[in-house]
C-alpha cells in the first residue's frame, strides 16, 4: 500500500508471474490505460493493491461480461482508477450499466470525477461513510461490488481520521473498516451479486471467507500477490445457494480452507475470450 510515485499514466504492477504478465499485456493492449489526469496529496494514488484488484477483474473478464451487471459499485474509490477500469472492462459502449462509487474523502470524490470524465465514463459519486444513506435505494441491487479497503493494521485512533490516513488505517488486524463493509455488501448485493475485495494476510482472509460463508457466500482467491511490503489476496465472493449456515461447521471449515488454498494457482483459468455480446 505504498503510495506510487507521481506518474502521468497508471500501468500495471511490479513483479509478475507469467500468467500475470499475460494479463498485464492483455490489459495494456485491450483496455485503454487509465490516465492519472488529476491527483491530490490527500487522495490515495493507485498502487500495488489497486493494480492487483484491476488485474483480478481482467482475469475474470469473461465471467464479468457474461454476468451482464446492471449496477456496479465501488466503496472507497480514491482516484477512480478501479471503477473507471471496471467500466472500460465492461465496455463503455454497453448501455444499461449503472456505476456508483463512494468515498469518505471529499477530495477523492473530486479526483474520481475527473478520472471518470477523462475516460468518458458516467458514474454517480457519493461522499459518504461506506454506503451510508444508500441502504434502502440499493438494497439487493448491486451486481458487482469492488472494494480496496483501508486494510493496514494501525492504532485504532487512526481509523477514520481525516485525509489520506483513512486510505490505509484499518485498526486492529486491519479489520475495522473491512468488518463494517461485509454486512453492507451482503445487504446491497443482488442475488447474483459478486464482491471483489482486496485483503492482506494480516487481515486473516480465511476468517473473512468463513464469515461470508456463514452469510451464504462462496469465495475464491483470484489473485495472490506478494510485494516487498505485503501479501495481497483479491477474493471474489458470490452467493452460494447450496450452502446453509448450519452446514458451516469446524469440519467443513477445514475442508473449505484447504480448497481455498488449492484455488490459488488456478487463477489463469479465469481468463477468457473477448466476447461481450451476451447481455
Ligand atoms: C486503499 S484506498 C483505495 C482507493 C482506490 N479504490 C484504489 O484502489 O486505488 C481506500 C479508499 O477508501 C476510502 N475510505 C476509507 N474509509 C472509508 C469509509 N468508511 N467509507 C468510504 N470510503 C472510505 C479512502 O478515502 C480511500 O480512498
TrEMBL record:
Main localisation, per the record?
nucleus
Q: By its UniProt entry, which Pfam families does this protein fall under?
A: MTS
Q: Which residues form the signal peptide?
A: none
Which keywords label this protein? Methyltransferase, Nucleus, S-adenosyl-L-methionine, Transferase
Cite the Methyltransferase small domain residue spans from the record: 71-152
Annotated localization: Nucleus
GO BP annotation list: methylation
Q: Which InterPro entries match?
A: DNA_methylase_N6_adenine_CS, Euk-Arch_PrmC-MTase, PrmC-related, SAM-dependent_MTases_sf, Small_mtfrase_dom
Report the sequence similarity comment from the record.
Answer: Belongs to the eukaryotic/archaeal PrmC-related family.
Xref: PROSITE patterns:
N6_MTASE (PS00092)
Q: Which Gene3D superfamilies match?
A: Vaccinia Virus protein VP39
Highest rank taxon of the organism: Eukaryota
The species this protein belongs to is Arachis hypogaea (Peanut)
Q: Which GO terms describe its molecular function?
A: nucleic acid binding; protein methyltransferase activity; S-adenosylmethionine-dependent methyltransferase activity
Identify this protein by name: Methyltransferase small domain-containing protein
**Which GO CC terms are listed, alphabetically?**
eRF1 methyltransferase complex; nucleus
Amino acid at each position: 500500500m505504498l503510495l506510487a510515485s507521481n506518474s502521468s499514466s497508471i500501468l500495471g504492477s511490479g513483479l509478475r508471474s507469467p500468467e500475470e504478465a499475460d494479463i498485464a499485456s492483455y490489459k495494456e493492449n485491450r483496455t485503454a490505460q487509465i490516465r492519472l489526469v488529476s491527483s491530490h496529496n490527500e487522495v490515495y494514488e493507485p498502487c500495488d493493491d489497486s493494480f492487483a484488484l484491476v488485474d483480478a477483474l481482467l482475469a475474470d473478464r469473461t465471467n464479468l461480461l457474461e454476468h451482464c451487471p446492471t449496477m456496479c459499485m465501488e466503496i472507497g474509490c480514491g482516484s477512480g482508477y478501479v471503477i473507471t477500469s471496471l467500466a472500460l472492462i465492461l465496455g463503455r459502449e454497453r448501455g444499461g450499466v449503472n456505476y456508483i462509487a463512494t468515498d469518505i474523502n471529499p477530495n477523492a470524490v473530486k479526483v474520481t470525477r475527473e478520472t471518470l470524465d477523462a475516460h468518458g465514463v458516467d458514474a454517480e459519486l457519493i461522499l459518504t461513510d461506506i454506503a451510508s444513506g444508500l441502504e434502502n435505494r440499493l438494497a439487493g441491487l448491486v451486481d458487482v461490488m469492488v472494494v480496496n479497503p483501508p486494510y493496514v493494521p494501525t492504532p485504532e485512533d487512526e481509523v477514520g481520521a481525516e485525509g489520506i490516513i483513512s486510505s490505509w488505517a484499518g485498526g486492529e488486524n486491519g479489520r475495522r473498516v473491512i468488518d463494517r463493509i461485509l454486512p453492507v455488501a451482503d445487504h446491497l448485493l443482488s442475488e447474483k451479486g459478486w464482491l471483489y475485495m482486496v485483503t492482506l494476510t494480516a487481515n486473516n482472509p480465511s476468517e473473512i471467507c468463513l464469515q461470508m460463508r456463514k452469510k451464504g457466500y462462496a469465495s475464491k482467491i483470484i489473485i495472490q500477490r506478494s510485494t516487498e511490503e505485503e501479501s495481497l489476496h483479491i477474493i471474489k465472493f458470490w452467493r452460494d445457494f447450496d450452502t446453509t449456515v448450519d452446514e458451516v461447521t469446524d469440519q467443513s471449515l477445514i475442508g473449505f480452507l484447504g480448497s481455498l488454498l488449492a484455488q490459488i494457482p488456478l487463477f489463469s483459468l479465469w481468463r477468457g475470450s473477448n466476447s461481450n455480446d451476451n447481455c
